[in-house]
Amino acid sequence: MDVVKVEHGMWEPQVYSAEHSAPDFLQIVKVEPEALEAVDTKADIAGVKSEALDLVESEGCTGVVACSCNRVLKMNDKFMEQRIIIKFLVKLNESATDIFDKLKLVYAEDAMSRSRVFEWAKRFAEGRMDVNDDARSGRPSIAKTDVNVERVRMLVRSDGRLTVRLIADQLNLNRETVRLILTEKLNMRKVCAKMVPKNLSNKQKEGRLQVCSDLSERLHSENRGLLNKIITGGETWVYQYEPETKHQSLQWKTPSSPRPKKARMSKSKVTTMLICFFDIKGIVHKEFVRPGQAVNQTFYRDVLESLRKRVLCVRPELAPNKWILHHDNTPAHTTLSVMQLLADKQITVLEHPPYSPDLAPCDFFLFPRLKTPMKGTHFASVEEIQRAVTNELNGLSDNDFQGCFKAWQRRWQACIDSQGDYFEGDHSLLLDNGADTGARC
To answer: Could you say which of 3.40.50.970, 3.40.50.720, 3.20.20.60, 3.30.420.10 is the CATH number of the domain covering 202-244+267-431?
Structure first.
């Protein structure tokens, strides 16, 4: 006697009066409470009363329905007809894709899954004649129970690269059940690994964690006045032409229209370097590096002198030495002569951990916001590049810069939450602390 557990929503239970009293002609269907409500409980189950009572006692069923096996197909057998069709179409040299499309057209939601159609088409193409499904040992579990959810969770935790097929095979679960557990119960999705600047060592993670912890503590101790004192900056190359991103090249199309095409392009060799400093209110100082000029310690000292004079003009409330400089750890920034200049001018430097563009406002905010609108545009000359850069910088609002500094603060906390590791791409670490406003970080 077959015992089939039916979850609500899996299929509509249909009730028939028992025409035969012999158990060999009957199946007992275990029904969950939600599905039982839709069943005519007045059906004649006298012929299997004793078996039903045994099932209720042993399986803890909430109800049973007697079905005449010669008038209703079991769940597995409802696909028999489709397997026969697959075998027939394979002999006509139809592709698995075409077969699946035809089954979907005829059976709609009752059609076999794409993976099962492809699997059976492959079997028949390799010479299989039997259309019956393979026998399985034991009763296959199709329930998304807490036990099965935890089994899937532990298996995926041990190896995040496992496919749905492998998980189903190892746990003896239906593939669709595994997919639903992963996507609905565990809220998981499969993603590609994200490129990071460097595989951080434990020491580097500890350094990032320490810096962000110190900054967070300092921020709270100074009643958030720290952010109003920081002037952050960096340098970047801007190209005469840089290909647009995949997202920028998206276009709407109808099913019958051809897919848009674009030629493979590379960055141009004509470039200009921008050096820019800004604070929570906006741009403080910018300049373009002359062609052929190396950004070495001598040049960077001159840049800092220009910045210091600019602060006196546009941020007099921070002059002469009430502001804090933040820049990354590129060699020109950390030479002895540069450090000596900063000490002589009594300019405090905010510590920045190595290999941390995700913690540098220029890298996660300013330069992406500057360059993205310019991608896909050909500029005629270096001067035209510089004009376009200036226009983009002038187009940034006060809210953009304020949003950037708020996002920077959240990134300190995200780094702490990730124990010093890279956190970009992990939305839970950033969004749990509030959505970014102003800055597209």
So the answer is: 3.30.420.10
